[in-house]
Amino acid sequence: PVRISRPVRVGVQLLVSGAIIAYLLWRIDLGRTVDLIRSSNGWEVLAAYAIVIVTTVGMAWRWQALLASKGIQEPLGWLTKLYFMGYAAGQVLPTSLGGDALRIAAHARRRPYAKGEAAAAVLMERALGSAGTLILVALGLILAIGRYDNIAVLVWLEAVFVVSAAAAFVLLFSRRANTWLQSRESTRRLARAFQSVWLALHSYRERPGVLGTVLGATLLLQLARIISIWLCGEAVGVDVSPLVYVVMGPLLFLVMLIPFTINGLGVREAFFIAFLGRFDVSADAAFATGFLFYAVSIGAAIPGGFIMLWESLRRPPPAQPVDAPGARVP
User: Fold this and answer.
1) Helices of type H across 28-96
2) In angstroms, rounded to a whole number, what is the distance separating the alpha carbons of residues 188 and 182?
3) 110 vs 253: CA distance, rounded Å
4) Each residue of 182-203: pLDDT tens digit?
5) Model-wide pTM > 0.90
6) Number of helices (H) and strands (E), helices first, in the chain?
7) Cys-Cys link to 99, which of 20, 90, 171, 260 (CB 3.0-4.6 A)?
8) Exposure pattern of 138-176 as b/e (b: 16+ CB <10 Å)?
């Protein structure tokens, strides 16, 4: 396969970023947009930020519950710290999956005997998050039937998302798929390399109770995050139903996973303009909503940045061996 060098990839991303920024400057009245942002309701923005911070603790709790079901006990504070560090890493690594890689690597260093379990817990958390997103997609579209006549193209896009996600779930969790991968010479080496992670993931089949609990928590956390986006819109005077954001949220989360530009530069705001414009929201107000949501996301990453700086400056404690997989690390 053709390998694209990093300078070329970064150059393409910069070109795409420049094109999107030029499009945004053409669509909006810059002065009016700046006025909307400057005059936004600070309390509503603060409430959106508080929701993101509190739900981060909830997301760390999901991670803790998945680990605990395997006999790996970790302090909630430590897992929450890693989550914030993941946010910070996601500002420089490609997409939010870079933050997941940081969490997997940090936990594997802490539990070197259980690297497969460390990776599996994060992957399962991501899988349940995707399942929660699909459920919200279905809920939003069902509630939108008969209310909004201008989202037909979104229905098709989200249907493609559902089918693609379902295929990914089958590939990840199907025993037949794993057997097929093992039988092919071209994929056998890859399948063997990830065998410990695959086995750790599939062992969650025996824990339906914890999976159901984590999925339920995921739905509540994602709804709360969608409310934070709605609050950003309210802060600049966008008067649309929260249901609109329930339909928009899953698509936004999907778009932001794809590294079109450097750190999603411009993509987020362009998506807000394209989506909210269907509900008669001006390009200026839609851009301002997306910008405030980005500001809230950056604000959530700041604690992680300080934590990473502190961790890099302080002397690391001497490594202490852990004998039993279920032992607690202080």
Assistant:
1) 30-38, 42-68, 76-90
2) 5
3) 30
4) 665 555 555 555 677 777 877 8
5) no
6) 14, 0
7) 90
8) eebbeebeeebeebeebeeebeebbeebeeeeeebbeee
